[in-house]
Design a protein that fits this description.
heterodimer, A: mainly alpha, MetI-like fold, 3 domains, two-stranded antiparallel ribbon, two-stranded antiparallel sheet, 14 helices, B: MetI-like fold
Amino acid sequence: MPKINLKHRSWYEVKDRLSSFLFILPAATIFAVFYVYPFFETFNLSLRDWNGIGPAKLFVGFRNFSDILSLMASQQPADLTWWQSVIYWLKSLAAGTLSLNYDEVWWRSVWHASYITLVALTFQNALAFMLAMACDREIRGKHFYRAVFFIPPVLSEVVVGLIWKWILEGGVQNGQHYGLLNHCLDAIGLHHLVNDWLSDPKTALTCIAVVHSWKGFGWGFLMFLAGLQTIDRELYEAAKVDGAGAWRTFWNITVPMMLPVIIVVVILTILGSMQAFVLILSMTDGGPGYHTEVPVTRILAAMMRTKEFGYACAMGVTFGAILIALSAALKKMENRIKRI
Amino acid sequence: MGMNPYKIRRLTKLVLIQALLITVTITCLFPLFWMVRSSLMTQDAVFVDQSIIPSRLHFGNYVRAWTQGQFGRYFLNSVVYTTIVVFGIVVISSWAAYAFSRLKFPGRKLFFVLFILAVMIPLPGSFVPLTVLMTKIGFINSPYSWVRQLGYILCMINVGLPLSVFLLKTFFDQMPSDLEDAARIDGCNKMGIWRHVALPLARPAIAVIVIFNALNVWNEYLLARLLLNDVAGKPTIMPLQRGVMVFADTHNVEYPLLMASLTIAAVPIILVYLFVQKHILAVGEPSKIDLLKEGRLSR
């Protein structure tokens, strides 16, 4: 390196670092304004009571959260001290009259999201795994199937939701069911199964979960297939020579070798399915009643219908905490499994 | 000569597997076929005629959706948003990734950690303050269409940034530094190296980024719902997904018309998918980095 006058060199360095900084400036600015600020503002707003328009953002501490979570008995008289309210709580529990003061629709919406996630975890991923196993061999049309299974994932939730809404339509005209599913059930003689699928509280959520799985299984399939293809064929040959049947080969070779991929798919399925909501907007918009609400549609409703911006943010923070707790638990499980 | 039991077992197994695959294939494709088929019927026919292929094909729904339903405009808007956002993401994220990987400046580590955290921490409600912010800055209620559109575009760029930066940085980290040195000796400055060395080398990574962000922008609904409002008397600025939802609300019983609009929204993305299939399906490979490595070696 040529010797440079110190002063000159430090000026050169400053200029160099400044010009380097310019490279991340656009990204950092956009990121700060549109991601970092809303991120922290969510926490700020969650402590306030605000209708989204007026200047007054009343600070209410953790009231929004206690409205969501509260375990207080709902009919409890207002003037009780804390230990009296504990006694009241226990008494009404013993008497079987305890009803809690939490946001019931919200917790039901959390259950609905969990239900959709459970269906995705079991039905969708099992199907994806089976299909991946089926395609992980020399089989006719392998590339065709692979391409087809990934068509639903590239479609938008709006399009998928509306197509299925039309198929599941429960109406009747001229004595004929015009929804495709009902028409087919009718045609093959299963009249008692005909239903107004998305308006019936008993079936609406399951329909959404199944359509969600229809849209999503291609992702799992793709990752499982890629994982299966990395397994050394010699392992299977060796198992065969040792006289292991298909079932033992599956449990003692395929599953252990696939564990890392399975864990990744499980984590992605959970985070994705818990937060899925556009499908619901396009199929049922949370109805009938509140039977297909999920947390994100609740947040949207609090923001756009009832104009409770603070409460909307508090729901977001609560749900975010649930998701983080879930993924932390999964990470822990992953580490434990890895150690075995 | 009869077939031996081993052969029979293998054959049944193959038949069962094919049956499963074909069933799932039909389940995947039939709803789409049903959409197209319903879009080619008249309003009266669709409720009574349940034949697989309608006796008379009726293309009027597409004409109506395209003109009366403003789908021509929605389509154009979606194309514009997708192009600008993807271009913005590629340029801005490759600048940032190049800097994170190769240049020295204060706060380098901190910024990168922030980017990674953004991908890892889910906060479902953050669109609430984002909407408030966009109103406050004046993006949402601006009388000028292009300002409202710009707001949406910036937000969508932000959505795609963190992952793209991360992907490109891991790519640039493996870039051989002798190429860079050679360029420097030839008189390239940092911008020149980015333009003539880094970007061309990163082509496989950029292909992945372009495809997935294009899909994401084309299919995006929530931010389009929150940030894009139309002003009476001016052409609509909504993208397709939003337009479809508006259309579904106002024409909720006109299924043939609605199916025509869905077809308009779905077919381009399916065609593009079939066209770039290889890149998309390659993302499932064990590690994306390996894919990118291969891409580099094959050049």
